[in-house]
Write a structure and sequence with these properties.
Blueprint lengths: L5 E5 L1 H7 L8 E5 L3 H6 L3 E2 L6 E3 L6 E4 L1 E5 L7 E5 L5 H6 L9 E2 L5 E2 L4 H7 L1 E2 L11 H12 L4 E2 L1 H12 L8 H12 L5 H9 L3 H4 L1 H4 L7 H16 L4 H10 L4 H11 L3 H12 L1 H5 L6 H10 L6 H14 L8 H8 L6 H4 L13 E2 L16 H4 L5 E2 L11 H10 L4 H7 L1
Parallel strand pairs: 2-5, 10-11
Antiparallel strand pairs: 1-2, 1-8, 3-4, 4-5, 6-7, 8-9, 12-13
Helix pairs in contact: 5-7, 5-8, 11-12, 12-14, 12-17, 13-14, 14-17, 17-18
Amino acid sequence: MTPTFKIYVVGGAVRDALMGLPVKDRDYVVVGATPEQMKAAGFIPVGKDFPVFLHPDTHEEYALARTERKTAPGYTGFVFHASPEVTLEQDLQRRDLTINAIAQDQDGTLIDPCDGQADLANKVFRHISDAFTEDPVRILRVARFAARFTEFVVAPQTTELMHHMVESGEVDALVSERVWQEISRGLMEAKPSRMFGVLRECRALRRLMPELDSLATQSSAASFEKTMRELDNAAQLEATLPVRFAVITHNLPSEQLASELCDRLKLPNEVKELALLAVRERDLISKADAIPAADIVKLLERCDAFRKADRFKDLLTVHKLIHQRRHFSSARIGAAGTDAASMDRRNLCLSAPGFGRRAPVRRTEDAGSLCPGNLPGSLAPLTGIAKRRAYDRPTVASTHHPGTRRWNRARSCLPARTASRRS
């Protein structure tokens, strides 16, 4: 590369290295180069809005030093200026936080015009200048950083600035996909409750996720705090993204509100489906100790547990997180979720007429007596629902009735001792 070029590592890579954290991705700023010179050196242009290039060997990103000017509301309303005359300091000044505006040259020297090292030492998120207000995504980034770096606090002046951005309507220009991108990343951090705490403090939560913000009102503030504790517990257990989001919707007052929140954020299907299942089935699952086996099977069918066993296990994980402070016998259905993929209606012998229609007449010693002979393997799942109610053979006048034939076929797969008892 031409000697007049100067290359610096910038942003999160420098920040994480100074904090003693693993460095995953490195971003580079090139000072004193033109796009033509970069291409002549073998770099591959990929930037649409401003000159960004991929290194020909490492494929890491190299961006030309640039300045930017706000021209319209929202995070896309910028005009960028990149030229060899733009200095490193000018490039660093356009960034969001002081801790992200530290550069390192090729011999290891740090360039820190915004005093980011001091804020790292003091564990403070501080904006660099009033230009922070020009990009509403920065509110979400600060909130996400709070969830990652759990000992840091947001500087009061920065919180005030974010509040001003909310009141001025800048946040309203954010599109759903961009909001979810940042929210989903924050949910997967060490303490996601801090993200929502920051958004609530600057009043952005009521604009971005009003359904969740409604839990923080004076009448239901305890519900909000409870949700945040459960969310952090999910993070400690390294739960999946769908599980973490479903913890939020589980505590919303209604499925309608949960659906509105999912639609507002335009969630991926796997996240939305679990989020709605969690709130829809919460009452029935919480009563697992008291409901009959037939109702549990209906629950499995409603949740499509026989085809989507992993999702059903995630649903049970959500309920375990919610109810961990009190007795919750999810074992009755937990085992069913564990092995649901290997079961179907025929395996369970519950497609016969009379199941779910006849009043219960006898308690069984275990749920295995409802199932075909391959106990305790794939049918042991319902042993977890154990000591539920079973049903006698329905009374049908004609042995040629289709219902009787179906029942006889189901009955033939029962263990011999059970079949004889029903004869």
